[in-house]
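Summary: Need help interpreting a holo structure output

Steps to reproduce:
1. Submit the protein chain below together with the SMILES for nicotinamide-adenine-dinucleotide.
2. Request a joint structure prediction with the ligand placed.
3. Inspect the structure token block that comes back.

Expected: a single structure record containing both the chain and the bound molecule.
Actual: see attached output.

Input attached:
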Amino acid sequence: MDISIFGLGYVGAVSLACLARDGHRVIGVDIDQAKLDLIAAGKTPVVEEGMVELMRDVVASGRVSVTRDTRSAIMRSGLSLVCVGTPSAANGSQDQSAMLRLAESIGSALRDKPGAHVIVFRSTIVPGTVEDTLRPLLEKYSGRQEGIEFHVCFQPEFLREGTSIRDYDRPPFTIAGANAQAPRDALRALFGHLPCEFHETSIRAAEMVKYCCNNFHALKITFANETARLCEALNVDPFAVMDLVCKDRQLNISPAYLKPGFAFGGSCLPKDLRATLHLAKMRDVELPMQGAILASNRSHVDHAIAKVIATGKRRIGMIGLSFKTGTDDLRESPLVLLAEHFLGKGLALSIYDPEVQLSKLLGANLRFIERHVPHIGSLIQDDIAAVIAQSDVLVVGLDGAPIADALVEHVREDQVVLDLVNLPVRASLRGRYQGLCW
Ligand SMILES: NC(=O)c1ccc[n+]([C@@H]2O[C@H](COP(=O)([O-])OP(=O)(O)OC[C@H]3O[C@@H](n4cnc5c(N)ncnc54)[C@H](O)[C@@H]3O)[C@@H](O)[C@H]2O)c1
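--- attached output ---
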């Protein structure tokens, strides 16, 4: 394939060398003449393991050329990778100036280009940038229509500096963010041979995945370091602790607890987090990230409350009250917080939860619900159809096929369903359905 690569920093230079190694003809484009001169001489513009030898070999092969001229690079290639920098601006926003200037000049070059062209954005860019900013710029400057005369797509880059050639060859996965088959096929032709899963998604989701991965990595490092500081103060070996934490592939290093849903609660997580924070405070250990978890969790409850209040409806039906499906434990259940709030606002409330039978509640569980929702007995009903019938808004916090079936069977056209647990009912309930976060 004839490929042009815009931006020859860590991502662009490594991609150029690896794609040329794999037999493609690659044109490197940068505004920095020093980088172009280095590559033309068979030298690497970035310090990376293996790059000295690889760049020497691929330049010697004759498959690499460099230029400052966008137009010539576009004319001589069928696909472009855009890898220019997207640094932080002073206020923390993303400085997209290099990207915007480049989109204008690629657009102008496309004006006269015969045949189709695929532009693959690889720089990390905030979600929506390709569709809302770059595509319109390309269309304006080219006078051509995206999706017909050229294509855009987004493929996040996951290489890490220091191991970038190895990461290029063994990425965690390939994400093809595209809205049409032609760019998906082009990405598969370029990267489909890599030993990893190839996933197709929307452009916006692909842009977001990159941020999500980086933020998750930052979160993991911070969690390990906060834990280590607390361990140090407690005279516990942090490596022994984190090594064991990582050995749990069921709940810790796994997809568990990583599905968007409702706030956490129950008899363990909130109290143990509070005890950890107290322990840290007693020993003057700062845990800013873990210290923010309960507040973040509370915002999720507030978000659900705001969604219900925004409907303007006054008869609320809650499907579920315990802190998760399959238990009658009400302690610190975020659904109890919701119920408490709705009653405080003077809304009419009815509740269905097949696991919660007041006559069987005991001890701390009973005391918790009596303190938070004193007249709970008069609100709980054992017939889900009756709760649905009496409500204008249904807040669904219980999972499972019987709940989904009852909703599909009984929900009326004039009702709103706020789904906190991602039931597979979105399509059946159409306009009446709201997920918590969309
Ligand atoms: N460095 C990494 O490990 C890494 C990993 C994944 C993703 N990313 C993302 O990839 C993008 C590039 O990162 P990088 O570290 O390679 O950046 P970099 O700063 O090392 O290189 C960017 C290059 O773009 C060039 N450039 C700027 N404007 C240009 C233009 N109009 N035309 C051609 N070239 C132009 C610059 O001269 C520079 O050589 C960023 O968005 C970054 O967030 C980086």
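--- end attachment ---

Reviewer comment: DSSP finds 19 helices and 13 strands in the chain. Residues 6-12, 29-32, 35, 83-86, 98, 101-102, 123-124, 157, 159-161 surround nicotinamide-adenine-dinucleotide (CB under 6 Å).
Status: needs-info
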